[in-house]
Design brief:
It is a single chain. The protein is an alpha+beta fold and 381 residues long. It has 2 domains: 196 residues, Ribosomal Protein S5, domain 2 (2-Layer Sandwich), CATH 3.30.230; 167 residues, 2-Layer Sandwich (Alpha-Beta Plaits). Helices cover 41% and strands 24% of the residues. It is built from 11 helices and 12 strands. The strands form 2 sheets. Strands 1, 2, 3, 4, 5, 6, 7 and 12 form an 8-stranded mixed β-sheet that branches. The protein has a 4-stranded antiparallel β-sheet with strand order 9-10-8-11. Helix 2 packs across helix 3. Bound molecules: alpha-D-galactopyranose. The site of alpha-D-galactopyranose has 12 residues, from helix 5.
Length: 381
């Protein structure tokens, strides 16, 4: 991919880039909608991501190009206002560029930029955090600034919250930034505090991307965010992380039926993250798998961010040999299911799962066997 981005950049702009940066997509391993509630989460950076090549430009224009979709889409942005339609993707690099001064960092004044990706978009693998972090590192390499990794992660999230307008937590950017091959990233979102945790040998990830996405997905994410904050307020705490399962039961009367279900999902999910961590330390992948599937069931019934497509995949995977567990990964309301399997799970079995899905929904999910990978980095400067 590095050669590809350099070659395409050179063809497009007539000279080689000065810098190339890369940031990975991520799997949400467990900890669904816990991040913006102050909870904990485990994720993995994967071996697919976004590459950004860039070079300073003397004309003071922001030349943004992507080969993320079909062909190359170019946006010229002397005026960094929010874009829509085919130019929507540019909100990620623009949002990061606009946000640099908020972190005391200089903006490259004019530059040529090209992003390429081998990460499926809309699959719940966080192509948005990957493009934010790769863009941030490319800009910082152009201006020779060296903030901490944590600042880069916060910059990406800030851009997503304030420019793109999605009230996400720190999970996606945190995992893309702190990922490490053969490890999971554990985030205590209250600090935030980032740690890497070894993944026991023999754990494999398979992604089944449904391509089916709720039309109102961003709105639904924001609604869940608000429902959680309202539930915390009704229970008299700042964030749901401060509620124990016993306190939730005591405060049940103060919540609507919906508020109670949302809070129950978050409170129990935070507990599941702790149990997964302990089971990982003991190398007990069977128990980890059971907890992953339990997380999905909670999304399905309590948080109501699953879909019929995701549920069918989890139901099918749950009874397939060599699968430890499966759950929706990411915000939900569509996107992808992640399965944790042993080494014997094969593409033949994945194809069988896809066949069951196609029989019901008329199309095949995309299947991706992915590996863990390292976090965002400048790879040439
Ligand atoms: C999306 C958001 C994350 C997180 C997950 C749900 O991926 O970007 O911050 O809230 O959904 O766990």
């Amino acid at each position: 991919m590095k050669e590809q981005v350099v070659e395409r950049f050179t063809k497009l702009y007539g000279h080689a880039p000065e810098v190339v940066a890369r940031a990975p997509g991520r799997i949400e391993f467990i900890g669904n909608h816990t991040d913006y509630n102050g909870g904990t989460v485990l994720g993995a950076a994967i071996n697919h991501g976004v590459w950004v090549a860039a070079r300073k430009a003397a004309d003071g224009e922001l030349h943004l190009a992507t080969a993320l979709q079909r062909g190359i889409v170019i946006v010229l942005a002397r005026d960094p206002r929010k874009r829509s339609g085919a130019q929507h993707w540019a909100n990620y690099p623009l949002g990061v560029w606009v946000s640099l001064p908020k972190f005391g960092l200089r903006q490259p004044e004019g530059f040529e930029y090209l992003a390429v990706s081998d990460l499926p978009v809309g699959a719940g693998l966080s192509s948005s955090a990957a493009i934010e972090l790769a863009s941030a590192l490319a800009y910082l390499a152009l201006t020779r600034e060296q903030p901490s990794r944590e600042t880069v992660v916060k910059l990406g999230r800030y851009a997503e919250n304030n420019f793109v307008g999605v009230p996400c937590g720190i999970l996606d950017q945190g995992v893309s930034g702190f990922g490490r091959k053969d490890h999971l990233v554990f985030i205590d979102c209250r600090g935030p505090r980032f740690e890497t945790v070894p993944l026991p040998a023999g754990a494999h990830f398979w992604i089944f991307n449904t391509h089916a996405k709720h039309a109102l997905v961003d709105g639904l994410y924001a609604t869940r965010h608000r429902e959680c904050l309202d539930a915390a307020q009704a229970l008299g705490v700042y964030q749901l992380v401060d509620v124990t399962p016993a306190q939730l039961e005591q405060g049940k009367a103060r919540l609507s039926a919906v508020g109670y279900r949302r809070a129950k999902h978050v409170v129990e999910e935070i507990d599941r993250v702790a149990r997964v961590r302990a089971s990982l330390a003991g190398g007990d992948l069977a128990e980890v798998g059971r907890l992953l599937t339990a997380s999905h069931r909670s999304s399905q019934t309590q948080f109501e961010n699953s879909t019929a497509e995701l549920d069918l995949l989890v139901d099918t995977l749950a009874v397939t040999p060599h699968v430890y567990g499966a759950r929706l990964t990411g915000g939900g309301f569509g996107g992808a299911v992640m399965a944790l399997t042993d080494a014997k799970f094969s593409s033949r079995q994945a194809a069988q799962v896809a066949k069951v899905y196609a029989r019901k929904f008329g199309s095949n999910p995309d299947v991706l066997h992915c590996e863990t990978g390292d976090g965002a980095a400048v790879i040439a400067a």
